[in-house]
Amino acid sequence: MSDSYTSYLPAKAPEPNVETQPFWDATAQGRIDLAVCDDCGFIPWYPRLMCPDCQSTSMTWTTMAGTGTVYSYSVTRAGVGRAWKEHLPFVLAYVQLDEGPIMMTNVVACDPDEVEVGMAVTAVFDDTGEGTAIIRFTPTQRDSNE
Question: Class for domain 21-139, per CATH?
Answer without folding.
Answer: mainly beta
